[in-house]
Amino acid sequence: MYLTVSNATKRFGTFVALDDVSVSLKKGEFVSLLGPSGCGKTTLLRIIAGLTDIDEGDVRIEDVAMSDMPARKRGFGIVFQSYSLFPNMSVAENIAYGLKVRKTPSDQIRARVKELLEIIKLPDIIDKYPGQLSGGQQQRVALARAIAVDPKVLLLDEPLSALDANVRASLRHEIRQLQRELKIPTLMVTHDQEEALEMSDRIICMNHGVVVQVGTPEELYHKPATRFVADFMGSSNLITTKLIRETLPHLMSKRPDGPDDAYDACIRPEEITLLEDENGVATVTSTSFLGNLNRIDLDGPFGELLVETHGPCNFKTGQKVSIDVKPEACTWVLNDEIEVVA
Amino acid sequence: MSVETFGAQVAPTFRRWIDSDKALAAICVIVPLIGLFLFFIYPMIIVFIRSITTPDGTYGLANYAQILSSKGFWRATQHSLVMGGTTTVLSVGLGFIIALGLHRCAFPGKTLIRVAIVLPLIAPSLVQALGLIFILGRNGLISQFTGVEMEIYGFWGLVIANTLYGLPQAVMIISAALVLLDARIYEAADVLGSSPLRQFRDLTLPAVIFAVLSASFVVFTITITDFGNAAVIGGDYSVLATEIYSQVIGQRNFNMGAVVGIMLLLPVILSYYIERQAMKRQKTQKATNVHSYVPRFRAIRDVPMGIVNFLIAGMILSVICIVIYASFVKLWPYNFDFTLKHYNITLAGGYSSLWMTVWISIGAAVAGTLAVFTLAIGLRHTPEIIAQPVRILAAMPAAVPGMVLGLAYILTFNSTATPLYLLYGSATLIAVINFYHYHTQAYLTVMTGFRQFPSELAEAGSALGAGIGRISTTIIAPFVAPMLVSVFFFLFMRSMVTLSAVVFLTTPQLTVAAVTIMRLDDAGLTSQAAAFSTAVMAVVGLALVGMKGALLLLAKRNSRKSGR
Prior knowledge:
The complex is a heterodimer. Chain A is α+β, with helices and mostly antiparallel strands.
């Protein structure tokens, strides 16, 4: 492991922002810290950056302790949601700032600034000031400023949250591309599950100051460990053991042992097959057309169910249907009894 | 009922509404505008005309030639500039240190420093001078206990008194720029490896340089136009403000006074203009959604900064507190037994001038708040081509020193040529000059509130059928209430302590608190002057507490309404 945080705890007064959190980052890896607001992900990032003091635990890079090292000695790069470019400096001066601090010769700085502006695809804005740039341009410059010094770790704090939807989508792709090319170990804080799924090698899912699950995007989506993760990562149907036993008993075979309320079944909406069936147990309560897919709401003995289908939609409101779920499409998740508003 | 008859019935009422709204909007602008013309523009024209009226009644530049060739004028000008320059450097330098201490350093007891900064604002300007005399004067603490004789009257006394007087303004202007700085910017620099000293040079200095400039011009202006400290501690060190006074009161030479007044106006207008430009540059740098900077304790920076901050705050506090203390002791600095005898004012009139000042201040505050609110309402409905010059006019009085405005008033209202003469010697006129003297600050404060007012609210109101009058009183007034409260108390407190504008307008029958303090000091009754100052500070201090209370109450009411 390249960067390791072990047993980090941070309190603000009586509020526990981080409770014994351990995470790690490999060389060249892109990891997202994902969770709802207030889950401690930003606090963790700031502790790694050295901007917030750690109460207990430590931060290491290749076994060198960082906890007592001030932020400016760590040699990291950071990008904030609010761009945070130096308003009194031009784009070139902003990008050059870290290099100047490191006393890099000025001809090298000039060449590096040019090269970085090419990388972020904005070669013509070198003499502009932050106030003259769009949000997307400012964030690209902030990225160039952070990577100019070849940081040991790149830290991204909700870097795309302040941008328009289409800028966000293209920048997502570009940041990931750039990170792959430069192989900078990167840690990104986000509350947007789609962003995390698209960009990350691994995702660390957090809630209430603890790590809930760590894994690849596929693992987190297909094999969520808890109700919280299942609910936070895309939409899912979460059904209690009792209802499954009564209505879809063939799904019980893979259930881990334990009391009824310990585990719930998680079935992704696209894993459910609908069949027209006049004697079906479920009724279509509404349908909506979302372009590339259809969203169908059902009501039946298993409660309300969400189904997504591709292609033309043949179902009408009020129609009787029967459903089919393959045993491998059902994941049993730990009931962590946390209500999450998606 | 057919459509036509229905329309015919409604249309006239509708038209009448539009007309009465237009008329109301016009009155809202015209009445305050008449006030500005009558009580600001017209007196300023008179002062200019009198400055070019020669003794034989013809117009010409003879007065200017005479003044410019007089040694006294050049000496006063030179004194004003040297004293103003020195004061500005000291005041802004110390103010910068305090502002940095308050906003960029971590040490305990900042509340005490904040209180010390506010104190000079509630005291008449000559209180600093009185305090210095009690400490450093011939019968002061230092000479009494060390035997060191110091000559406090003159240049250094004036510089110290005015430095303390200008400090709060400098701190407030520089602080306003410092709180706009985004913490994230510093964190970005931190992560990039920049040292704290380097961050100060690269980020803080460029961001506050315009505020420092602006503070310099403000402090320079208030020091060269201040009369109170110059009169009490200036001694033989004549400055332009005292020069006007001696021309007018001493030699009854009104036209020469007018010339000196115009000469004093020039540097002030220049610095006012530059300051406004500097403020504009400052605003363009303002960022949205700023994360405020929370300094973490660093001994190497915070221990020395804390000590220096407390030393400066201690200086301000001790100079003012010594005045209060001295008012309660038998014979300063020989007998420190407690007594209330100095509160028995022996000068003719006793405390009547204090109560008169309270009434005048209430009058100025009520009428002034109403006038700027009405003007702001009217400007919402005025076409830009008229509104633009009105806005410039409303922001102009701040560029005129109180001494010059006072002189303009005596020249205008002491002349029997117009019916305005009826106002001369009345408390009303003193209330009027206090309002117009501080018109700009009052107007700008209310405008800040109006800029934050979402115009959709007023549009929703008028779509529901409410006229300007109803919208103004039921929708706009509650929204800008905090600003109106601030303006009311600002006008009240300034009217309580101001000296320079009113010094020419008081008569033996009608005088105000600050003038009484000056007379007590002139008569050698320094302890009584201290007692009277303490009484004034008590009234203004109460008003300040009242203002904070009212604002807190408003904030509470608003937060309850929004359910927070």
